[in-house]
Design a protein that fits this description.
This is peptidylprolyl isomerase. Its EC number is 5.2.1.8. It holds the Pfam family Rotamase. It comes from Pannus brasiliensis CCIBt3594. The structure is a single chain. It is elongated and about 70 Å long. Strands 1, 2, 3, 4 and 5 form a five-stranded antiparallel β-sheet that branches. It is built from twelve helices and five strands. It is α+β, with helices and mostly antiparallel strands. Helices cover about 60% and strands about 10% of the residues.
Length: about 240
Amino acid sequence: MSRTISITNQDLIQQLKFSGKISEIIEGIIARKIITEAAAEAGIKNAIAELQQGADQFRLANQLHNAKDTWDWLGKRGLSLDDFEAIVQFNLLSGKLAQHLFANKIDPYFVEHQLDYTGAVIYEVVLADEAMAMELYESIQEEEIGFHEVARRYIEDVELRRKGGYRGIVYRKDLRPNISAVVFASDSQRLLKPLLGDRGFHLIFVEEIVQPKLTEELVLQIGVDLFGRWIEEKLQEVEFELGN
C-alpha cells in the first residue's frame, strides 16, 4: 500500500547539502546572474516572436513532440509554465550575448588554433606487450596479416572489435601528447610503429588526416567554447554570500 510523504523546502536544501552538489548549484546561479546582467547592460532583449521560436527549438531538442510531452516533462521536474518560459528566455539571452561578445572573434580564433581542429581518422589496437605489438606491426607491413584481422584477434571490447578498431575522428586533445605528435605528423593511409600509452602499446593505422574547415557546426562550437571561458573568467571575479 502506497503512502504520501511530505517534502519541505528545508528537506530539499538539506538533501542538496548532503549530495555535495551545492557548490555546483551556486556556481550555476551566479553564472545565470552574470549572463542576465551582462545582457541587460548590452541592451539585449527577446522579442515575442523569438520566444515562440525558442520554445519550439527547446521542445524539439528535448523531444517534446506535443503538449502532453511538454506537461509531463515539466511535471517530472516540478516546473511550471512560467518556469518553462523563463528557461526559454534565458537560453535566448545566453545565445544573443554569446553572439554579441564573440561573433567577430570566431574567425581569428579559428585561424590561430587551426591545429587544434585538425582531425585524424584512426584505427587502433592496444597491446600489453611491446614485443607482440612490434611483431604484429612488422607482420602487417609485410602483408602477412591485415590490420582488421589483428583487431579481430586482440581487441577485447566487443563493439570496438566489430568495428575493426575504428576510433573515428580524433583530435590532439583526445590523445596522449607523444601519440598525438606522431599521429598528426603522419600521412594518410599510414601504419604507425607501436606507441606507448596509458593502457599499453598502441598500434595505430591513420586512415586520413582531416584538415579543418570553418563549418557552421564548428562556428557554433567555437562560440560555445569562448562563451564558456568567458563565464569561467567572470566566476573567478565574483564573491558571493548566501542570503536568508
